[in-house]
Specification:
Elements: E1 20-27, H1 34-37, E2 38-44, E3 52-62, H2 65-71, H3 77-83, E4 90-91, E5 97-104, E6 116-119, E7 122-123, H4 129-132, E8 144-145, E9 158-162, E10 166-168, H5 175-178, H6 182-193, E11 205-209, H7 214-226, E12 229-234, H8 240-246, E13 250-253, H9 269-290, E14 298-301, H10 308-314, E15 320-323, H11 336-341, E16 345-348, H12 354-365, E17 373-377, H13 382-390, E18 398-402, E19 466-467, E20 471-472, H14 478-488, E21 492-496, E22 502-507, H15 508-515, H16 520-525, H17 528-531, E23 533-534, E24 538-540, H18 545-554, E25 559-564, E26 567-573, H19 574-581
Parallel strand pairs: 11-12, 11-14, 12-13, 14-15, 15-16, 17-18, 20-21, 24-25
Antiparallel strand pairs: 1-2, 1-4, 3-5, 3-9, 3-18, 5-6, 6-10, 7-8, 19-26, 21-22, 22-23, 25-26
The structure holds NADP nicotinamide-adenine-dinucleotide phosphate.
NADP nicotinamide-adenine-dinucleotide phosphate is lined by residues 64, 183-184, 187, 209-210, 212-216, 234-235, 239, 254, 302-303, 306-307, 324-325, 327-328, 350-351, 396, 431-433, 436, 439.
Length: 584
């Protein structure tokens, strides 16, 4: 008769699965800071399906995902699963692991009981029509990140995974090292190798953002293995040596530049010229590092909003910017001229399929991929490790935690096939940038789920608009328009053609942009038609105010011309809406 529960560190006889197991659990009533959300509990060991495997976890990798799971935002992962029919009222996180196979379902052919494995974190329904038809499972609607979007992750004595997730553990690595690299390395592999003709090749140049981070450290090594040259971007010279030991030809300190963020308005001559100056000097720095005037064929992106404009600008004609995250924000701006005239590709990428994960793992098995483990924790410290991440006080690189392994340094049973320099991060290294948003969030699609309710108090545009149109002709000078604005104390003038049709609006922003990079006389001499925003955005006086506000904000405008029976009769502006808010 087998024991019902084994103490952590006591290994049950191979293949014997106890009824219960120790685990770190998150529950809805304690969502919040990781040190409180994670609690040790004993739960039933999960049963497995025919295509599944039960693995005794020796060590687990730590990722941001479970900081978000602990907080319960932006998604309550437990409620989301309960809604889709799963009954467990808790979450066991953990999307990276090393361990020993203890039980296999009858359809599993790639591993057997006793195998030492690492696991990739992609799960999908093998009965999904897309997958059955041979489609990339990464595009399946059933795709989930194990241990974040699914339960039974690696922060427990046993984890339940699909057979294809299991890959051979590199013998030269310890349990904690081998638990550290799969999620980031497989993501980096797909980003660099998953995009047909745009994928990385021998002789290419790759620009790698965050070279000392989890993804970047893997990308440098993957680029090196294929014979490409990489240039790493980091936030300080103290990380140069680390990236170069991993294989980067050289590094750039991003703090030497200040042109980051969204692009200036394309009509803003002065702002655009300043931005161009910044981005050109960044491009010239790439040449300096390379020792030749070459642009990156591939740009490895994840910071997002602050860096995408630069990535697209510096990328070689016909090259690819491949992005898997928007750590600094999701609203990246793109100067489309560079995309179409220089025929660059902006490619989204998310984790990796089993084939790509295994290709990546071959590199690890061959000893060509350092796991870049920066810190390992004991089982008791699991919540602290997540708290450090939450507080942004964790080091760069990849972190892991012991689960079944009783000490650090166990589990390695062979020598690395090739000798590798084992790089170390600068002493006392911690993150200096805000924690990223989750790598996976539910996005609305065409079919939608819940019916959307839009609340509205019924106010119409006619209730707030100003009647009367103050206009100019397309041939009036900017000087004339400025005088109208000042005399009438208004912020925009409608441009009307000879037939009384509104053909554009000259706003204060248009006036200010006209002055950028020009003398006052040059600006004044310009014509309204040259500076106006064409195509005058209008709304009917009967339109709901909330719809008008959506029009204004979506188009980044401050006012709309109001029409009745198709004829312009007045204006509604943001100021009018603000007045309503304060009840004036
Ligand atoms: P990480 O270890 O924190 O490294 C990210 C690096 O980005 C930082 O070390 C930082 O390096 C750099 N960085 C931060 N802010 C920056 C900015 N404003 N401009 C330029 N660089 C900046 O994180 P990671 O594990 O590499 O993951 C990076 C992102 O990818 C995260 O958002 C993560 O959630 C996401 N991710 C997505 C997937 C997926 O499948 N979709 C998979 C894994 C990770 P310096 O300060 O040295 O520049």
């Amino acid at each position: 008769m087998s024991k019902q529960l084994y103490e952590l560190g006591d290994m049950p006889p191979l293949g014997e699965v106890p009824e219960k197991m120790h685990a770190w659990l998150i529950r809805q009533d304690r969502f919040g800071k990781p040190t409180e959300a994670f609690q040790k509990e004993v739960v039933n060991t999960p049963a497995i399906a025919d295509d599944e495997v039960l693995v005794l976890v020796m060590a687990a990798g730590i990722n941001y995902n479970n900081v978000w799971a602990a907080l319960g935002i932006p998604v309550n992962v437990i409620a989301a699963r309960n809604k889709s029919g799963e009954v467990e009222d808790f979450h066991i996180g953990g999307s990276d692991a090393s361990g020993i196979v203890y039980k296999v379902g009858k359809d599993v052919t790639n591993v057997k009981v006793g195998d030492e494995v690492v696991m990739h974190c992609g799960q999908w329904n093998r009965n999904c029509a897309w997958v059955q038809g041979g489609g990339d499972p990464m595009y399946s609607p059933s795709f989930r990140i194990w241990g974040y979007e699914t339960n039974w992750g690696s922060f427990a004595q046993f984890t339940k995974v699909q057979g294809h997730q299991c890959m051979p553990k590199p013998k030269h690595m310890t349990w904690e090292e081998s638990a550290a690299y799969t999620l980031v390395a497989a993501t980096a592999w797909r980003m660099l190798h998953g995009w047909g003709a745009s994928s990385i090749k021998k002789g290419d140049v790759a620009l790698i953002w965050g070279g000392a981070g989890g993804l970047g450290s893997m990308a440098i090594q993957i680029a090196k293995a294929v014979g490409a040259t990489s240039v790493a971007v980091v936030s300080g010279e103290d990380k140069f040596d680390y990236c170069m030991k991993l294989g980067a030809k050289g590094c750039i300190n991003r703090n030497e530049f200040d042109h980051w963020g969204m692009l200036p308005h394309w009509k803003d001559n002065a702002g655009y010229a300043k931005w161009l100056k910044g981005v050109r000097s960044f491009g010239a720095k790439i040449w300096d590092v390379l020792g030749e005037r070459r642009a990156p064929n591939i740009v490895f992106e994840h910071p997002g909003e602050t860096t995408i404009p630069t990535s697209i600008f510096v990328c070689e004609t016909g090259g690819m910017v491949v992005v898997c995250a928007g750590t600094t924000g999701y609203n990246a701006t793109v100067d489309l001229r560079y995309l179409w005239m220089r025929q660059k590709r902006l490619q989204g990428s998310h984790f990796a399929n089993a084939e790509q994960s295994n290709q990546m793992n071959q590199l690890a098995l061959r000893g060509q991929l350092d796991p870049c483990m920066s810190r390992a924790f004991t089982y008791e410290e699991l919540p602290i490790a997540h708290q450090l991440m939450h507080d942004n006080k964790h080091p760069h690189g990849n972190m892991s935690v012991l689960i079944g392994a009783t000490q650090f340094g166990l589990g390695a049973s062979g020598k690395a096939p090739v000798a590798m320099v084992h790089p170390t991060l600068p002493k006392g290294d911690v993150h200096t940038t805000p924690a990223p948003y989750p790598m996976s969030v539910p996005l609305p699609d065409i079919a939608g789920g819940e019916p959307l309710t839009i609340s509205d108090d019924g106010t119409r545009v006619r209730d707030l608009m100003h009647r009367g149109i103050i206009s100019c002709t397309p041939d009036d000078t900017v000087g004339t328009v400025a005088k109208i604005m000042v005399d009438k104390e208004i912020h925009a003038v409608v441009v009307m053609d000879g037939e009384g049709q509104a053909v554009g609006v000259v706003s204060q922003t248009d006036m200010v942009l006209a002055r950028q990079g020009r003398t006052p006389d040059e600006a004044r001499a310009m014509r309204a038609r040259e500076v106006m925003t064409p195509g005058c955005a209008t709304c009917d006086a009967d339109m709901l105010l909330s719809d008008a506000v959506s029009l204004l904000t979506a188009r980044r405008m401050h006012r709309l011309v109001v029409t009745e029976n198709g004829q312009p009769v007045g204006v509604i502006s943001m100021t009018d809406v603000v007045r309503k808010i304060i009840g004036e």
